[in-house]
Design a protein that fits this description.
With about 250 residues, this protein is of the alpha+beta class. Helices cover about 20% and strands about 30% of the residues.
Length: about 250
């Protein structure tokens, strides 16, 4: 039974009912299309480009770049994260330890408040109030994140990953078989510094950095669109429907 002011899924057309039951009836048509595509291809380059230098310089100058030696726990070696927006806006060393905080609203952390350039980058791309947790992540030289799924009980968990730095040789493989083996759907996400990709992190994935430089990304969970991301995604979808090749994907 729906609550007052809510719309029940009963009586909706089939496709609308499916989105409502998934808790995603609020998505725009473009957002639904992207979520559906992520179920089949776990990395989409929809054309998000930005200057990574201001945000990276800001994190570096403020000594806020996550350091692997500060990480409390890790799956793999040589990675660390810095919470930028989480339940209660708490400063913490790990990504999103929400135990006991589920009833707290998502807020920017004190560290994020010190990073206006980084916040401006994120807020220009997504509608922050509709997004999940946001964090920065460093993968140290010769570091590795073991194969895993961030959300093994669902088909799609969307994420916008913004590469502030991505040294030559770094690879993020998605679409692995459960357990980490390469399969027919495995691909290497086409990251480069200053490029943002939409990812399905429910897909099994593995990251390695064989270089001598750190890899630094900003990650936005459930990145519902606005501004630059919305314009890029709309143009990308129209190109795909028009039959044009879009960053390696043909209809």
């Amino acid at each position: 039974m729906s609550r007052p002011g809510e719309t029940s899924a009963q009586g909706m057309p089939g496709h609308q009912r499916a989105w409502a039951l998934a808790g995603q009836e609020h998505l725009s048509a473009a957002e639904r299309a992207l979520v559906s595509l992520l179920a089949y291809r776990p990395a989409l380059d929809v054309g998000v480009r930005f200057d990574p230098a201001p945000a990276l310089a800001e994190l570096t100058a403020l000594d806020l770049l996550p350091r692997p030696e500060r990480q409390r726990s890790a799956q793999g070696r040589g990675w660390a994260s810095l919470a930028l927006r989480n339940r209660g806006g708490r400063s913490m060393g790990s990504i999103e330890d929400d135990d006991g905080m589920q009833d707290q609203p998502l807020r920017w952390t004190a560290e994020a408040d010190r990073c206006p350039q980084l916040r401006a980058l994120v807020e220009g791309l997504v509608e922050v109030e509709r997004c999940g947790t946001i964090f920065a992540m460093t993968l140290a030289p010769h570091g590795e994140i073991a194969a895993h799924s961030d959300a093994p009980t669902v088909e799609v968990e969307s994420s916008l990953n913004l590469a502030l730095s991505h040294p030559a040789g770094c690879q993020m493989r998605l679409g692995l078989r459960q357990g980490g083996e390469v399969g027919p759907d495995t691909l290497v996400a086409p990251f480069a510094a200053g490029r943002g990709l939409l990812l399905n992190v429910a897909s099994w994935h593995h990251i390695e950095n064989p270089s001598t430089e750190p890899r630094v990304h900003v990650v936005v969970r459930t990145p519902w669109q606005r501004g630059a991301l919305q314009r890029a995604a709309d143009g990308w979808l129209r190109a795909l429907l028009d039959g044009r090749d879009v960053h390696g994907i043909s209809p």
